[in-house]
Specification:
Blueprint (H helix, E strand, L loop, with lengths): L1 H13 L3 E6 L12 E7 L8 H11 L1 H5 L4 E7 L1 H6 L13 H7 L1
Parallel strand pairs: 2-3
Antiparallel strand pairs: 1-2
Pfam family, one: BolA
Protein name: Cell division protein BolA
GO biological process, one term: cell division
């Protein structure tokens, strides 16, 4: 449900060329759903904007979610030009495992 909220708000505000919102809550302990998300967003909105400005814009749009259920939000923001210049393998963005999960598997 939160994932869909995030996706909807971002679509309305940023008119993305590409958007991927992933719930990564299962990669963290304790496992609590709808708390950890990764957003990959490609939008012309970001033309001329610094990385900090891009992230702040997203934080403003998702202020309600960040004040409530969302604990962590990984942001990967690109202009269309930046995105098209990436190699295909660089478009797959892996998030690191939570320290608690890493300690269980090592």
């Amino acid at each position: 449900m939160i994932c869909k909220q995030i996706e909807t708000k971002i679509k309305v505000t940023f008119d993305p060329l590409y958007l991927d919102v992933l719930d990564e809550s299962n990669c963290h302990t304790p496992i609590i759903s709808d708390t950890h998300f990764k957003v990959v967003l490609v939008s012309e909105y970001f033309n001329g904007e610094s990385m900090i400005s891009r992230h702040r814009a997203i934080y403003r749009v998702l202020a309600e979610e960040l004040a409530g259920p969302v604990y962590a939000l990984a942001l990967h923001t690109y202009t269309v030009k930046e995105w098209t210049q990436l190699e295909e393998q660089d478009k797959v963005l892996w998030s690191p495992l939570c320290r608690c999960i890493r300690s269980l598997i090592t």
